[in-house]
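User: I'll paste a sequence; please echo it back and then give the predicted structure.

Assistant: Echoing your sequence first, then the prediction.
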Amino acid sequence: MTESFRRRRILNSPDGTVATCFADSVAAVHPPILPEPPFSGPAPHCWRAPSILASTEDLLIYRDSCLSLVHWGGFYRDAVAAVDAALNWRASAPEHCRFWPEDSGYSLVASRDGVVIGGQWVPGDDEAWARVCADDLAYAQGCSVAVFRNGKNVWNHGTNEEERS
């Protein structure tokens, strides 16, 4: 299925017919993701919440970023709850309601001392290449990198030589 066809589904109503207005569309029933927070700190992925048009992988990266900062305050707890609601809704949405892009690649999530400091998208189906990119990112940033595919952690890379495989 093409990306443009999936995007057009946003104009459907939840029953699969064409919506008569935005309030009747699938986009209107998708749980909201919190807006950009007023804060300053070391977590670039919490800087801007992804839109409802973001892939599920992007929502998971944002959720992990906020989860690592829950101890900073209530906004992050609310953000995690909002993303969880959106992920649960997406998991239960019928196929004709799925308008967000399919995840077809690997997400690399870099963290230092339990705080997410960055991320990188590696397109394609080559896990070996995703691991090479994770290696490069870990050594360049001096951090740990987790590799995700379709929301599941498939590999972790630490900065110690013993952890390198």
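The chain has five helices and four strands. Confidence is low (pLDDT under 50) at residues 160-165.
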